[in-house]
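User: I'm curious whether this sequence folds into something compact or stays loose and floppy. Could you predict its structure so I can see for myself?
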Amino acid sequence: MNEQPAAAPAKKKNEKLTGWLGTYVVMTVIGVAYSLISIFKNNSEVLSECNGAKLSLVKKFCDEVTGPIGLEMTMIIIIAILAIIGVVLVYKRKKISIPYVIAFEAIVLAWNIIDFAMAMSILGPWGEKLHTNLTSGLVSSLVISIVSACIWIPFFIFSKTAKKELNQ
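Assistant: Here's the prediction. I'll summarize afterward.
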């Protein structure tokens, strides 16, 4: 008798993700939530302090940071939307998931580098007069995005599991 082994059942498109793909989804959702909360909290504090500014030095600082803060808040909303799209694509196991996630992680890394450079160029002259929470938040966001890109971009490029799961 020549019996062939039964084929493994195909995974359903909306079946729960496990392993590294599940970890990616969870970490992306947590990262976006944390970023939205921290960016809006920190920037709202800065803008509220600027509204009541009476000293000319503080007013000058506020004039310099208002535009970049608006850009930063807009970009985090765009990144959050892109992240949600990426999570949905991975969860639904769409073929475009792998290049999308790689591009998304590269965009997030590029934005964090630009945001850090922009903030440091603006905050440079004001560095001694500012709270360290602002600069430490920028540094931690940059480090997190570097680590995230170093983990997820190679994973989605080289992982046979990701290719198998997402290229059904």
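Summary: Residues 19-166 form one domain. The chain has a mean pLDDT of 83.
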